[in-house]
Give the backbone structure.
Amino acid sequence: MVSVYGICLWASTLAAILPGLALGSSLSKREASISDLVGFKGAILIANGKQTTCEAALIDSSAAFVAASCLQFKDGKVDSSTKYELVIKMGDNSAGSQVHSITTISVHPKYDPAQFINNLAVVQFDKGEKTGWKYNIGINPEEWDSHYFARRSLTSVSEKRWNNILALDSKARPSDCAKYSKVFDSNSKDFLCNTGSTNSIYNKDCSLPYGTVYSMVKPSYVHIIALHSHSVVVDGNMCSSKQKLHYYTLLRNYAAWAAKEIGRSIGGFVKSSDFKMKANYTYSMKSNADKVDGVEVFAGDRFVKDPVDPSLVNPPKEPNPPKEPNPPKEPNKPTTTATNPTKTTDKTTATKPTSETNKETQPVSDLPSDDEDPESESKSDTAGTDNSQESNNKPKKSGMSTTTIVIIVVLLIAAIGGGVWFYMYRKKKKSAELQRQMEEANAENWDERDGDNEPQLPDNMRMTQDFNQRINLPPHTGNPNYASTYYDSRPTDDRFTRDFGREYGRSTYMQ
């Protein structure tokens, strides 16, 4: 009991010295950072064996979102002569990359390639593995503390070798987003807008937008939220130095439609259990065909500049398009632009954002695939979490964080200090017990002593407190062996202060 108190006191002292360390929660959780993207599965669309600039937002182990503008159309339908595949990087293990053949493509029924509204398609592919997994889509924009923009690319499709992920941590929205896009102006809650870009791996003079966007919810939740839709350039093209704005379609409003297409539920993440969202299986953006003078719009695969089907739209022509060189056998690794994206590698150390002590809950909702009333309400606060593998979108951690190491050291110091304190306490207690036993033994031996020089006192006599003085005994009849004078045989500097009976406060023996 005392030892537990001592250890708690020791730990409390350390907590006072090191404020801000929550010994209960910091051991199990750490704060998210942009380098966590390394631990996520990512995918790139492959067309006829060549990689595109189009990334996929993975739904689960056999379905994903892609931008509809990345597909080739013929007679108003997806061109079946093009072979589409997905190369999926299995987290931070490049060796575990897999190539999946796409078997089914479902383009949003209200996709408009002229305006790039509803620029989404759901692709289904062969699993290639028995174990299923699911990713959750970020649902509530009010909870998103930051946006992580990511660009993935391959150095070799056949060998499934990847470049480092380029990433940007930004929640800023440029003021010109609505000015140069009437579609964005009419659907601002359906898009993210950002000016950040990377360089093409085939032409460093050409800019590329990021492919996917993730939300970061403090302290440690990261989920995919958007795909690149289209970009606008003011008086220029993607290979010019003119101002560029990139627009990303938010997936949250299309989750119900996608669930209906694939015939199963889709995971959604919200932190607050009070948040509710209606499942709309026919959701569509607002149309706005107004053009903006001096602005060119670009979408789809930028590695191969093939237009979408002419029967659907007349794609914008680039003024004086630069001649693009043939892709080299071994493309250069991506480089960063003036936007300073982060090159995220498998060994990147996690950088901790500002901590927050909000109550942490992680309800996960599944948007059903059944055809229901579009106005029916689907709650996002389903109790518990999805039991499927990786449903929480938590990337693998490459190592212990600094906070975890510090806390472990603190606990070790507390344990050692508590152990030393307990050892000293036990030693002192044992010493006191031994001293008590010795005193009792000495007292017992004194009572039992007899002999010529130290006659034993009668049972009805009691000794006084001071044994170092000469004691005159009263006359005693009936006992011829009883001496009239008694001296204490112990050294004169040894004063025995314990009373062997009740204390009389006198210097003589009395009956």
In short: Residues 454-511 form one domain. The chain has three domains: 1-30+407-448, 34-255+288-360, 454-511. The chain has a mean pLDDT of 73.
